[in-house]
């Protein structure tokens, strides 16, 4: 029996789920460090990060032992089958560049067992701890699986309501860098048009009873966006947090000398 999905539990009770995006530090120790800091989940990035499916499967085992929820971001919509990440033990999948309701429905279809979807069946493998479960397993797995849509283009926001109304979607994640590039205002995160998109995402998530996800730049902006309504938060990325901490350490020593 799997441990309870802490992310699902926190979202169901209206709490905030904290985690971190891993792009570079694909090591078992990094997962335990994140867990020791009290975070709830880790997202292994296979789009921009260095991880592959073999590394992912090993780090998922580390996440299990650390008691943290392992999620994974696929490289693109064409990654097939999406359910392979679930079969190696991920408890949720983040899909980048979702732009239409049709794409969103296809994603859910691939990640859920029948009757909600058409996920292929392989039991007695990593996702069920090599213990083939009975008939109740399929409904439990569908409930446990977290589906995350990364919304990061202007076209996605043209079809926002159709995407967010898709049954089976759990988290709508703001892809802020890509979105500003798509809008012709690259990295202008204080631009009124971008801020309108943030508000639209939050309003849509409230309307469809979804959680909104985001990766803020620093503690102050994290608190701001949580107060605005974001409930799934990546506390930076491994690269950003490590580099920022090391730079602050180095600067403090040099200043003291």
Structure in words:
By secondary structure, the protein is α/β, with parallel strands linked by helices. It has one domain: TIM Barrel. 46% of the residues lie in helices and 16% in strands. The protein is built from twelve helices and eight strands. It has an eight-stranded parallel β-barrel, surrounded by seven helices. α4 links the parallel β3 and β4. α2 packs parallel to α3. The radius of gyration is 18 Å and the shape is globular.
Protein topology:
Elements (H helix, E strand, L loop, with lengths): L5 H7 L4 E6 L5 H9 L4 E5 L7 H14 L2 E5 L9 H5 L4 E4 L5 H11 L25 H8 L1 E6 L2 H5 L1 H5 L6 E4 L1 H7 L9 H17 L2 E4 L4 H10 L3 E6 H19 L1
Parallel strand pairs: 1-2, 1-8, 2-3, 3-4, 4-5, 5-6, 6-7, 7-8
Question: What would the keywords be for this entry?
Answer:
12 helices; alpha/beta; eight-stranded parallel barrel; 257 residues
Oligomer: single chain
Query: What's the arrangement of strands in the largest beta sheet?
Result: 1-2-3-4-5-6-7-8
**Largest sheet features:** 8 strands, parallel, barrel
CATH C-level class is: Alpha Beta
Count of helices?
Answer: 12
Task: Give a concise summary.
The protein is α/β, with parallel strands linked by helices and 257 residues long.
């Amino acid at each position: 029996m799997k441990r309870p999905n802490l992310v699902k539990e926190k979202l169901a009770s209206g709490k905030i789920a904290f985690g971190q995006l891993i792009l570079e530090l694909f090591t078992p120790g990094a997962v335990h460090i994140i867990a020791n800091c009290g975070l709830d989940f880790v997202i292994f990035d296979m789009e921009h990060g260095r991880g592959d499916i073999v590394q992912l499967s090993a780090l998922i085992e580390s996440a299990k032992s650390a008691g943290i929820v392992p999620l994974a971001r696929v490289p693109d919509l064409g990654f097939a089958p999406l359910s392979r990440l679930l079969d190696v033990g991920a408890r949720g999948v983040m899909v980048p560049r979702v732009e239409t309701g049709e794409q969103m429905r296809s994603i859910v279809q691939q990640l859920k067992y029948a009757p909600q979807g058409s996920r292929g069946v392989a039991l007695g493998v990593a996702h069920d701890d090599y213990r083939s479960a009975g008939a109740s397993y399929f409904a439990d797995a569908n409930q446990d699986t977290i589906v995350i849509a990364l919304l990061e283009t202007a076209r996605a926001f043209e079809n926002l309501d159709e995407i967010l109304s898709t049954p089976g979607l759990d988290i709508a994640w703001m892809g802020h860098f890509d979105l500003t590039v798509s809008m012709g205002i690259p990295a202008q995160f204080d631009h009124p048009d971008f801020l309108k998109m943030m508000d639209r995402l939050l309003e849509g998530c409230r309307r469809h009873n979804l959680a909104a996800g985001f990766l803020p730049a620093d503690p102050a902006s994290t608190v701001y966006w949580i107060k605005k309504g974001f409930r799934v938060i990546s506390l930076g990325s491994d690269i950003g947090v490590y580099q920022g901490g090391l730079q602050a350490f180095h600067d403090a020593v040099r200043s003291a000398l």
